[in-house]
Amino acid sequence: MGTVRTCNEPRRLGQCLDAMSPDELARLDDAVIALDPEGHIVAITPAAARWIGVAAWQARGRTLTRELGWRFGKDATAAIAAFSGDTAPISTVHAAPDLTHQRPAAEVALVRGDRRIYLALAA
C-alpha cells in the first residue's frame, strides 16, 4: 500500500507547488516566480518574465531583489526583501507602474512554502 503525501503548502489547482520541479513551475499559465531561500529565481513563468521584461532563461539564477528589483520599484523590492528574511506565511505588495518601460502596476502575492518563496503577479 502506498502513502499519501500531505501538502500544507502553497497550491495551485490542487497541486502542491513545493512538490513541482522548476520546469513544471515554469510551465504554469499564471505569472509566477519561485525563489530559493537565498532569493535566487529558480523558476519563472513566461507571463512573469514578460511583465519583468526579460527572457525566462535570463532571469533564472539571478537574485530577484538585487538584480531585478528595480523592475518592481523601490518600495515593493524592500517589501519582497523583508518578506524573504521574515517568517510570515503570506503577504502582498504593490509594484508601481514603470512608465519608462511601459510596464503596468501589479499586485504581488508573496507566499512562503517549505522549499521556496512564490511571487504571484496580478497586473
Features:
5-stranded antiparallel beta sheet; alpha+beta; 25% strand; globular; two-stranded antiparallel ribbon; 5 helices; 123 residues
Provide a descriptive summary of the structure in words.
- A 5-stranded antiparallel beta sheet has the order 4-3-7-6-5.
- With 123 residues, it is of the alpha+beta class.
Oligomeric assembly: single chain
Query: Number of helical runs?
Result: 5
| Share of helix, binned | 25-40%
Low-confidence stretches: 1-6
Main sheet characteristics: 5 strands, antiparallel
Let me know the number of strands.
7
What is the CA-atom radius of gyration, in angstroms?
Answer: 14 Å
Q: What coarse outline follows from CA principal-axis ratios?
A: globular
Topology of helices and strands:
Layout: E1 11-12, E2 15-16, H1 22-26, E3 32-35, E4 41-44, H2 46-52, H3 56-59, H4 64-68, H5 74-84, E5 90-95, E6 106-112, E7 117-122
Antiparallel strand pairs: 1-2, 3-4, 3-7, 5-6, 6-7
What is the structure about, briefly put?
The protein has 123 residues and is an alpha+beta fold.
